[in-house]
């Protein structure tokens, strides 16, 4: 969205409209907003009402969320300012003792002790420096424990020679770029030097030049050892090279001259641009060169990686006239320069066609004018009108009329995605997806025809706000199969917090998956799980949180009662041994205040008098896990199940030590692994087991083998192809770098994926598994359906539905039973259970029942009774080492469900399938390069969860991200975002952190998929300031809707924002959601697409241009323009709904009598050839003084 930026000062907006039942304080300035969550206008029973009271300067001083708590009491945010107008104290929202129906609360903090906040310190405090810059020197978080643990900020300049001076040269004629180290480093005071010291004393130092470009990020492992990441820019201010810590250390003794090629190619990031500032070539550490080609509109058309390069093949993308992706596939070609010359002056646009063309067995209803000799079409997307042969859809859940594709009507599917086809990579079978919408443009029906001819259909009944009330899913593997139907029903409270979730498969009894209760802070207090009656749940799971909002307990392991599992998370408390293992006296378990976890305790009720188990954790100053020490309360110093890890500066593991359980008669457990890792660059080339004769963890061999990668360590994609120590003799990959075949110990596993990376089939030997929209099938012989069955010689395997996933576990389609999972804070499956005998009570251990013969004649005969022992109703118990390897006493009675660590599927190879990569828990790393390696630029692209697997997870093998909405209009921005994300379930917590999941049966759009990525990746914080003002105070700049504020790398992130292990990239965006909403409405777009666009723009900028300069401020405008345009265009391509052209004007009016400038902001549009206008109001500005 175009931003027109003018230096101004401030803006006041006061709204006066309200309903009669309110009790607003009319002697105050206020803005009242009301969002309807159900129908019936003035009599709506569910609304979200907010009053923002303003002081005499137009600043928010109190925000009242009317009846917003679960008990329908007001929740109030108190806002104060110091004498300089700075917000030094940030208070947590406080639930009140009742409601005042919108009136201002005289003492909004008084009720805090009566809420879960208790007597804690409920404000975060900033200390500012005594200067006009108002820079933060310290920030103390909420909570008494954090009052003495501030985050400290120091602002300085570099010393002479403190930072090396690298320069990059680029010759367009040869297209060669080089790094040269100057013999003289940066002189004193040439760079800004900002230091952040977190709550645990970990330091990050960032050096920037006068243009705002990050030159060096330095992390201190101790007072001497440094982990340096250098960013090098060419003559055109383009990021040309990144030197990660291991590379910087390798050349630490280099004083001048050219950078060594071997270090550059193995460890550094390299980028080349064309004359239009477009990234056209890049090389990531350990990979070959990748190439990119653009059309006239700067849209990415061709990409080629190092494996495709020798074959001359390119991945292509074609667009329609609105910039929406319509076709992707593979085409033959020549080198990058020739491909660029071929399309430089063209817009690669194809149009809908009645006849189209046929490719890979699919009739495609688009023209094929540009590079028509396509080798393979991988995906096809249709918008606006449904393609021919679209199956019919008749709603059965609701009788609401559907949107049609008749564009002559007032509303239609024009601008909406209606169908998408995705081909299997390994064959020419397709999955066809169709979406139907209601009259509000919300997706209420989907129909996915799978590659086998079956289908998955979903229908959703949505309430007024778009929240699902009921979802019906109909499924077949083959078209000839019997249809399986699941029904889900949802109920919510007055603020749309989920209260109950029921599930029914076919005609089986309705099951209560979850019944939720929330505390007054809207945190989940407990969840009743399972059962066919709301009054008789199988388990009640209780949750506790600390003042920071971090979960601290899942049931109480010290007092289980009828609970099957208790799990306790400790951050700033240590209850176990400080030095659990005297082999490592320097490694001590200590309280942590920066979000790292110090200890976890757990206990199950599956054994009589089972002892409490505990892990204590030790970290280095880069927040990397150094050790996980297991402690059994009976013998806590027995050295059982520990892992101890050493790293290089890039985070590659260099040594891993591990032990097993304590054997009877011993006082200490035996070590089973002492692994030495050898690397070439970041690639692991050999693992040597130095614990002689031990193969319980990693296999011991007299002579260990070399681990091999594609293309002989030269110009491949960095994919592991051979690991003979584990019997893996071959791994073959498809173009997505996903394994299509793995050979291990002569056993072959074949995989089939769709072109979007979704796995649809696995063939392990002769055992076939199908993955179809969450429904999982497995070929079983009749004798294998029950545990312990003998396989008959004439048994024939039959493909049968095994798993229907649910939000709390899964439904076993063979036994017709619901299986429930206890998961920890990382999503690890800890314990699973089922009500086998349907008595409503879970038997945690083996039990007996008396079974009597019924054939007897009383009173002369007596029954014959036998006490039969029955197995308990625990399906599996799993315990894990810190990096995910399972303890050797893990037990299971169910081999069909192999989802364990992080909830990921364990493969027959011993690796976990995360979706984008396979993870090896025995050695704690991936076998292929991170697809998002550039987001973790100072880490090895093979590391797992930035080496802190206790705090972070890797959702899909791509990355470990937050989206945070803050400011006085955060709630309005969130409501608009929800409206624009009809396929997602979105939530926003009290701190503005937005989280979400894909709705059951829904298909995410490109924009929604990217939003989900932005919310799940801890290396990027998208910080969106949503405000009612159109002024950015810090640089005296006005915004029109939103403004790109750039990003910082490893910068001094506002410590009030949760979720950044080492703060890799912090993206900033400022928006006015009121203006954005008006623009959406004025140009007939879905309300909220503007907010969505701004978030995607910030995220795109963080990924593609880390360290980009803000577009705001007179000095930055020219420097930041290219970065902004790149982020803006990428965001626009993701969401075709933002296809209106903003026509606007800012008109300067005569000054007021007091000398203030007035600006009138106006929107224009064309309606039937007539240019209409709409005013967005007038802004009064105080002129700047020199």
UniProtKB/TrEMBL annotation:
One Pfam short name: DUF6443
Keywords: Signal
Residue ranges of domain DUF6443 in the record: 37-154
Organism, as annotated: Chryseobacterium balustinum
Signal peptide stretch: 1-19
Xref: NCBIfam families: Rhs_assc_core
Gene3D superfamilies the record matches: RHS repeat-associated core
InterPro entries in alphabetical order: DUF6443, Rhs_assc_core, T6SS_VgrG/RHS
Protein name from the UniProt record: RHS repeat-associated core domain
